[in-house]
What does this fold into?
Amino acid sequence: MMRSKILVTREVFDETLDYLAQHCEVESNQQDLSFTAVALAQRLADKDAVMCCLTDRIDGALLERSTRLKVVANIAVGYNNIDVAACTARGVMATNTPGVLDDSTADLAWALMLATARRLTEVESYIRAGEWTGWRLKQWLGVDVHHATLGIIGMGRIGQVIAKRAAGFDMKVLYCNRKPVAREIEQRLNATYVTRDELLAQSDFVILQVPYSAQTHHLIGAAELKMMKPTAILINSTRGGVVDDAALIAALKGGTIRGAGLDVFENEPKLDPGFLELRNVVLAPHIGSSTEATRRAMAMTAAQNLIAGLTGRTPPNLLNPEARKQ
Ligand code: DGY
It folds into this structure.
């Protein structure tokens, strides 16, 4: 019997490749160079499935040319790189990796929050530059995270894990979401549902945890930044594009808000150079889920989704169940 052929678009772990190779013929890009759209289309011409990342754009034009494709397995929970509707229209199953990265991603949001509040990257540069000459009472004053008000925009799985950690810091937690979460979850997290405007006006820390889509594009722009307290700190560890970067840079420069901790950017990896000139921002290169254990779990989850789809089973994290019915 002919084995299915699959493409793994970026470097993954050995155990992921071993698992995939037990079931199909694997072409993998262990050099980890991002494929151009043309190169990706050429490689997918004879493939039954693809395991891809947020750096791969899987759109209608690509799907049109990839006539054998049955499964697109993203190694990420976010899937704005995939045109799911176009997949469904062609009977292609699309999957993602929810759950396994919730804790690590929440940890990174917290790391950014603490680092920005206590100015960790600023002081690290200062100490490395050999400029520390002694302790002073008014040196490098930051702001307290404990007992402050945390506003979470987007109370899905990751938002809830972020909120859970706030209890240890005695924080007041506000959140907004498309709709309130179950009463039992609100009580457990001690979180209060408010409007977005109330959240922006009252929070000392605002964390964004919504997926990127046309509806969330520039959810935070100049007008929203103006609603925030001048002492507030914004954290974005979800997706670039949810924040209007140019408006944020202007707000950070002009003192509209105190600071920002950012793991994601519009047009990443190209950063708006304005960010590099600012001291009141902590920058990270989209590492929200990047711990050894979590990235391994994400890759294996994607592989299991892919194999399930190719072997006639329902992938555990199928985004478009309608595709199976085609
Ligand atoms: C995701 O899973 O969406 C992350 O951004 C990738 O680590």
Notes: The two ends are 24 Å apart (CA to CA). The chain has two domains: 5-98+292-325, 102-283.
